[in-house]
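Batch job 17 of 40 flagged for manual review because the log was empty.
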Amino acid sequence: MEELWRGAPELDGATAHERWVEVSPGISLRVLSWLPENSDSASLNPVVMIPGWGSVFEGWRPLLSEWVKQRPIFYIETRDKASARFSRNVGKADFRMEVHGRDISAVLESLQINQRDVDWYSSSLGSTLLIDSYQNGVLDGRSSILLAPNPDFDFPLWSRILIKLPLPIFVYKKLVGFVAWVVDRRTKEEGQKVRYRRALLAQDVRNMVMSARANLGYKLPEDLSDINVPCAVMSATSDTLHGFDKVKQVVDSMQNCKLIEVPSNQYAHDPDVLKDIVDFQSSIA
């Protein structure tokens, strides 16, 4: 599974780059980027993508393979991913939501990308950290599409107990297969099952445990009225892992936000969703 976390995936019609950006002393994040070969990339607004908790690139390949023909894309893997590089010991505090937001800001500064030019696309944890960062003035943008944000992280009771216990890492590694089985049972969409199982089996377990502990007590603020970035929250009623009703509550908490209901979570990973993305971005231009 290590091959999922290194190398710049080649996509037709684009030049690929891979780099690690130091976001704080001793911590660097992997950033993948693709520039369209047949366009003047400097004249196009960049798409910055923040994938979900533990998400691997392969789950997004169908969408990005088509999107990159039109726009420059920057794909930032947060520090919960196995690609993150640590030269010091880390703990729960290193994975708090506000830390993720500062990381993303540091990456854009390193890449000399103006936040106000960015069209964001994010999923799950990536969507949650963006909402948190918009509300707290850490990040800005031209537009933002937020797939299945988590207003909280309501893990089942049994998993909350396991996450909190000071078990050796090798025990958690043994539990990964069981967790993958549980997620498979809770998920209705076949494509989502495949993506989540692949992601779970590819993780650095220590990172994921620390991240889970940091997420346990987190909730998005009920008042999100300070968000000025034009947002669209994308969700599917069939997505049982993220809870459609909770997602609607997030939409209602923001003043400048639209709900885009899609047929499935998998649809938001496929090229067909580009029509919905372009329609939304055109509506705010």
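Reviewer: the log was empty due to a logging misconfiguration, but the result itself is present. Residues 169-186 form the longest helix (18 residues). Unflagging and moving on to job 18.
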